[in-house]
Design brief:
- The protein has a single domain, classed as Alpha-Beta Barrel (TIM Barrel), CATH 3.20.20.150.
- Helix 3 runs parallel beside helix 4 and helix 4 packs parallel to helix 5.
- The protein starts with 7 loop residues before the first helix and ends with a helix.
- With 320 residues, the protein is of the alpha/beta class.
- It is globular.
- The strands form three sheets. Strands 1-2-3-4-7-8-9-12 form an eight-stranded parallel β-barrel, surrounded by six helices. A two-stranded antiparallel sheet has the order 5-6. A two-stranded antiparallel sheet has the order 10-11.
- Helices cover 39% and strands 18% of the residues.
Length: 320
């Protein structure tokens, strides 16, 4: 009879673990519900490129090699033969806001090629930066206080007070919103056919620089084949990454992992190696777990031995 009953200690342990799980925090022992899978960014997917990564403990790679499908299929075979995976294709910058229709169409065709390559690689998604704006007066990162129209996604103001000096930027931003939406909508049918997600990234392109605004743009497509490819280090100068993650939640399809060290006054700074900067990695890890993230993180960095990068990634994944 006694054996069939929970001891007081056992009951309390069980209750505590259940409470932690329901609250969205790791259960006892520091375990997280979602796993972070280690990757690096490489160009061509070859055994020569993959071997040192495999030996350092990486699970896979993200490829910048947007190539014909036959070549991508060979890369997939090499990776899978080594117990690794090409999880994503980094398409990168496009010019969907260009006034030249030929440049826009070239960007669309290049992105279609990336989608097809991703399918042949056995990847889940592509990383796409729709466009950028520059060459005009813009607020400093710490000055932004964006207000936007929920229906159109158009910016109505970017700072508190007088916005006249930023009129050109506001106009360019709103044009970028419209042209990017038109372009991505043209790509969705192929993404759906291939079952490859379009992961939108805003990477110091002076667009969608606050969490709620970025979420609104990604969500505006209302389509499961358009999500956010979130770069943890790129957003530090605008707001702590954990705030972006909490806002984006399940819209995040993949992660780029790097760090950024703010200047002592919190204004400006420089990219540094993971865990050497201003990012609160335990807070980021907790936010990812709360968001239900279970997926890949690609280190976007160079300059350290691969085993050191692997070690730092593992510490981040452990919430340290």
């Amino acid at each position: 009879m006694i054996d069939s009953l929970l001891t007081r200690r056992g009951f309390l342990a069980t209750a505590t673990a259940a409470t932690a799980l329901c609250a969205g925090f790791p259960a006892l022992g520091g375990e997280y519900r979602g796993k972070l899978r280690k990757a690096m960014i490489i160009q061509a997917v070859t055994e020569e490129a993959l071997r040192p990564l495999k030996e350092a403990g990486f699970d896979g790679v993200e490829s910048t090699n947007v190539c014909p499908e036959a070549e991508a299929a060979k890369g997939r075979a090499v990776a899978e033969g080594m117990g690794m995976r090409v999880h994503s294709v980094l398409r990168g910058w496009m010019e969907f806001n260009s006034s030249d229709p030929k440049k826009v169409e070239a960007g669309l065709e290049s992105t279609r090629m990336a989608l097809r390559a991703a399918k042949a690689y056995g990847a889940d998604d592509i990383l796409l930066v729709p466009c950028r704006v520059n060459g005009m007066a813009m607020p400093e990162p710490w000055e932004f206080k964006i207000e936007f129209d929920e229906k159109t996604g158009h910016v109505t103001r970017v700072v508190e007070g007088d916005n006249d000096k930023y009129a050109e930027y506001i106009k360019a931003h709103n044009r970028a919103v419209d042209t990017s939406r038109i372009a991505v909508e043209k790509l969705i049918p192929l993404a759906e056919e291939l079952k490859i997600v379009i992961g939108l990234e805003n990477v110091w392109n002076n667009l969608w620089v606050q969490p709620a605004f970025y979420k609104h743009f990604v969500a505006s497509f209302g389509n499961p084949w358009v999500k956010s490819y979130f770069d943890i280090g790129n957003h530090v100068k605008y707001a702590p990454p954990q705030e972006w993650i909490k806002t984006l939640g399940k819209m995040i399809i993949k992660l780029h992992v790097k760090d950024f060290k703010l200047n002592p006054d919190g204004h400006g700074g420089a990219f540094v190696h993971p865990r050497d900067g201003s990012i609160d990695w335990p807070a980021v890890r907790a936010a990812l777990d709360e968001a239900g993230y279970d997926g890949w993180g690609s280190i976007e960095d160079t300059g350290l031995p691969l085993p050191e990068f692997a070690k730092r990634f593992d510490l981040i994944a452990a919430g340290k």
